[in-house]
Amino acid sequence: MTHTVRTERVTFDSDGETLVGTLYRPDGQDLRPAIVVTGSWTTVKEQMAAVYARRMAEAGFLALAFDFTGFGESEGRPRQLESPVRKIGDIRSAVTYLARHPAVDSGRIGALGVCASSGYTAVNAADDPRVRSLALIAPWLHDANLVRDIYGGADEVQRKTALGLDALARYEKGEAAQYVPAVSVTDPQAAMFGPFDYYLDEKRGAVPAWTNRFAVMSWPHWLTFDPHPAAARINVPTVLVHSRDGAIPQGAEKFFAALAAPKRLVWTSGTQFDFYDQDAKVTEAAGLATRHFTETLT
């Protein structure tokens, strides 16, 4: 059964900042299981989070997509700071919002993370007993070794880290935050340098709500983030959906191997960006997540 979905703009607090979200509500009046849905790094709720939240609601789950602190419509400074710690806290606050919502069965809350937010979602789930089920779509799950491989070796990682620490020191002294493009085909200092069409195509991810910039002080936070130790602490059913043609599949394999909870890893086809908005791939991945949540949020 495909449900009719209505949306509403909602706000909630996270560590003193007001975050803005979109609640996707299926038709019907019964208490619903609910899913927190989050997207890739640097993104806003109108991008891949919206795509998957709508699919979850069409399947009968109440779903919440939201802007992290410092992104989109949400409060918080510095803007466009990719802080895993801050984002993990925001996910926990989103769970709190859902747990208190009168239409939500607070004992049936799950979380779905796409790409980079899979790591944030997983770390929160390891420490938040209110999250009863987990789905990670095209998960970006790096560790120190993968960071070196992805970002050009130890010297380049050190250079980016030094740039970030300098930008942070300047910001703490009262200077303006330093930014580079989040994505660029011309600026090699961009966080993602290359033809990443999803982010540069107005028909795909280059939505008006997304600001194409990345706080330089983010680098130390991002490059040292390692979600893998959380795997052994996750005790809820978890499904990973990925492709060997997607981003760092070896990270997904390592994380899956360390999971102690009931688990499933589904290998499918497609590129990383196919999972973000291509209908056939989204339908497949969302269908796997829907089946997982239906079986486990009971």
Descriptive report:
It is a single chain. The protein is an alpha/beta fold. It has a single domain (5-142, 226-296), classed as Rossmann fold, CATH 3.40.50.1820. It is 36% helix and 23% strand. The strands form three sheets. An eight-stranded mixed sheet has the order 1-2-4-3-5-6-11-12, with helices on both faces. A two-stranded antiparallel ribbon has the order 7-10. A two-stranded parallel sheet has the order 8-9. The model has no long low-confidence stretch (mean pLDDT 97).
What class would the helix/strand composition place it in?
alpha/beta
Total domain modules: 1
End-to-end separation: 18 Å
Largest sheet, in brief, is:
8 strands, mixed
Unreliable stretches (pLDDT < 50, length at least 5) are: none
Principal-axis shape: globular
Report strand %: 15-25%
* CATH architecture assignment: 3-Layer(aba) Sandwich
What is the radius of gyration computed over CA atoms, rounded to a whole number of angstroms?
18 Å
Mean pLDDT: 97
The CATH topology: Rossmann fold
